[in-house]
Automatic annotation (TrEMBL):
Top-level lineage group: Eukaryota
Coiled coil: none
Protein name: FAD-binding PCMH-type domain-containing protein
Keyword presence, Signal: yes
Source organism (scientific name): Oryza meridionalis
Listed Gene3D superfamilies: 3.30.465.10, 3.40.462.20, Uridine Diphospho-n-acetylenolpyruvylglucosamine Reductase, domain 2 (3.30.43.10)
InterPro entries in alphabetical order: BBE, FAD-bd_PCMH, FAD-bd_PCMH-like_sf, FAD-bd_PCMH_sub1, FAD-bd_PCMH_sub2, Oxid_FAD_bind_N
An MF annotation (GO) of this entry: FAD binding
Annotated FAD-binding PCMH-type domain residues: 76-253
Membership in a protein family: Belongs to the oxygen-dependent FAD-linked oxidoreductase family.
Cofactor(s) it depends on: FAD
Signal sequence, renumbered to the chain: 1-26
Keyword annotations of the record: FAD, Flavoprotein, Glycoprotein, Signal
One Pfam assignment: FAD_binding_4
């Protein structure tokens, strides 16, 4: 794997409210804020776990999980009144109880990868909220005999994978490629990765959960009921409560997997191969995932096969001869070794996936699309021309993940994640830039590319992935103290299609006064 690709993959990975009228942002000297902090300590949260704006530790704690540098300028948006570094469930419950009592809302942060930063910032200057940081609640308990695990929301995917491998080397889990992503946010939006065609999404394997609800109560699956349990498995974070932990069913992995990267440039037929890929990749056997990383001057076909190179080669020669894959492209390893290899490069070790730190040096903007019909070769040529235009102001990548197989065989109403049958692939557009001047031009080109793609992607609605949050799709509007369902539909149906209405109905039942709220949280729909 090249150094440039490794760097861009690292940058790609680093990125997974509330409104109560007030004439100004509350300060630590506001009497209501003092009462809120006093309530937290009275509820047995140690003072050293509470970081207010006047604390010397506040800024460093706030910025510790800000993955996108454009959000480091904390004067551009509203920051939390305080950050509670929860160490046990009762701390989360106390934060919710005290927040409600003192007219302060709560946002939960697990990994800090939310693309719009909504787990730690608010766009409305009148916002009064606290952050419950879950990064200290990251235990993983694996039951190898039953093939299950309990994982807390503050754990990263790397910590989850490492714990599974340490206890049961022949088991794995179907989730994302980025080890630093927090479990809480990732699972809340669905969670897909290199095992998606074999096993589906992360939430397809969640069998139980514990959640702190809008009144501060602690609920398991039986207590929360099947509607709420359905909603938290892909309905997006920050809407229904704070999920403390997830009970997941692990999946078998073979002793050997094969990873390969085949690079093609436009001069070496990249566009021809990509055009054919979009019809071949979704129809390959379940055991293989061939995704695409498209850049202005090259296309990388990156794959993982659940088996050996000897088994893979005849399959690829028969089903995808135009890729011209050879034995020299094969890299055999264990499943756990594939995690750092794919994300960090060939020199990375399994220990590296335990590193929680991943702060980018460049700004990013992310968008997403779903494609249900192949894009013609002539259009791909125009797409690459637009990608090359963007290099005048920054860098751009398209991460293109094929669907089909298991992820597409599950009915779209089984979980809130609806992008199933009929989807060929998902596109994530990532634009990178440095400096404010370049940002204006880079964002304009990014919008132009997104607009250009409109005729060639899904329609009615134009679908998007909830974990690739994009506020350009729309924002909530609060009417009479409640997020408007009418306004929420604008962005909500893009993420959830027909499941959005059911999500809003669940919201009305479990959080009717819209306590858990942000710019793109599920609004309540009252019958």
């Amino acid at each position: 794997m090249s150094n440039s690709k490794t760097l861009l993959l690292f940058i790609f990975c680093i990125f997974s409210s509330c409104y109560i009228p007030s004439p100004a942002i509350a300060s630590d000297h506001d009497p209501s804020s003092k009462g809120f902090i006093h309530c937290l300590t009275k509820k047995s949260i140690p003072p050293w776990l509470i970081h207010t704006r006047s604390s010397s530790s506040y800024t460093s704690i706030l910025k510790s999980s800000i993955r996108n540098p454009k959000f480091l300028n904390t004067t551009a948006s509203t920051t939390p009144l305080c950050i509670v570094m929860a160490k046990k469930t009762s701390h989360i419950q106390a934060a919710v109880v005290c927040s409600r009592r003192h007219r302060v809302r709560v946002r939960a942060r697990s990994g800090g990868h939310d693309y719009e930063g909504l787990s730690y910032r608010a766009e409305d200057r009148r916002e009064r909220f606290a952050v419950v940081d879950l990064s200290e609640m990251r235990s993983v308990r694996v039951d190898a005999a039953r093939g299950t695990a309990w994982v807390q929301s503050g754990a990263t995917l790397g910590e989850l994978y490492h714990a599974i491998w340490s206890s049961a080397p022949r088991l794995g889990f179907a989730a994302g490629v980025c080890p630093t992503v927090g479990v809480g946010g990732h699972f809340s939006g669905g969670g897909f990765g290199m095992l998606q065609r074999k096993y589906g999404l992360a939430v397809d394997h969640v069998v139980n959960a514990t959640l702190v609800d809008a009144m501060g109560g602690l609920l398991g699956r039986d207590a929360m009921g099947e509607d709420l349990f359905w909603a938290i498995r892909g309905g997006g974070g920050g809407s229904f409560g704070i999920v403390v932990s997830w009970h997941i069913k692990l999946v078998p992995v073979p002793p050997t997997v094969t990873v390969f990267d085949v690079v093609r440039t436009p001069e070496r037929g990249a566009i021809d191969v990509l055009t054919k890929w979009q019809e071949i990749a979704p129809r390959l056997p379940d055991d293989i995932m061939v995704r695409v990383i498209a850049e202005p001057r090259r296309v990388t076909f990156e794959a993982m096969y659940l088996g050996t190179c000897d088994e893979l080669l005849p399959l690829m020669h028969h089903r995808f001869p135009d890729l011209a894959m050879t034995r020299a492209d094969c890299n055999e390893m264990t499943w756990i070794e594939s995690i750092p290899y794919i994300h960090l490069g060939s020199n990375a070790t399994v220990a590296d996936i335990l590193n929680r730190i991943s702060i980018s040096r460049v700004n990013t903007k992310n968008r997403s699309d779903y494609v249900r019909h192949p894009i013609p070769k002539s259009i791909w040529k125009k797409i690459f021309a637009k990608l090359q235009q963007l290099t005048n102001f920054g860098e751009v990548q398209l991460f293109i993940d094929p669907y089909g197989a298991k992820i597409s065989r599950i009915h779209e109403s089984a979980t809130p994640f609806p992008h199933r049958e009929g989807v060929l692939y998902n596109i994530q557009y990532i634009t990178y830039w440095s400096g404010d001047a370049n940002g204006t031009l880079a964002l304009k080109c990014s919008k132009d590319l997104y607009k250009f793609m409109e005729p060639y992607v899904s329609k009615n609605p134009r679908e998007a992935y909830a974990n690739y949050r994009d506020l350009d799709l729309g924002r909530n509007k609060v009417v009479n103290g409640i997020s408007s369902y009418h306004h929420g539909k604008v962005w909500g149906e893009k993420y959830f299609r027909g499941n959005f209405e059911r999500l809003a109905t669940v919201k009305a039942k479990v959080d009717p006064d819209d306590y858990f709220r942000n710019e793109q949280s599920i609004p309540p729909l009252f019958e």
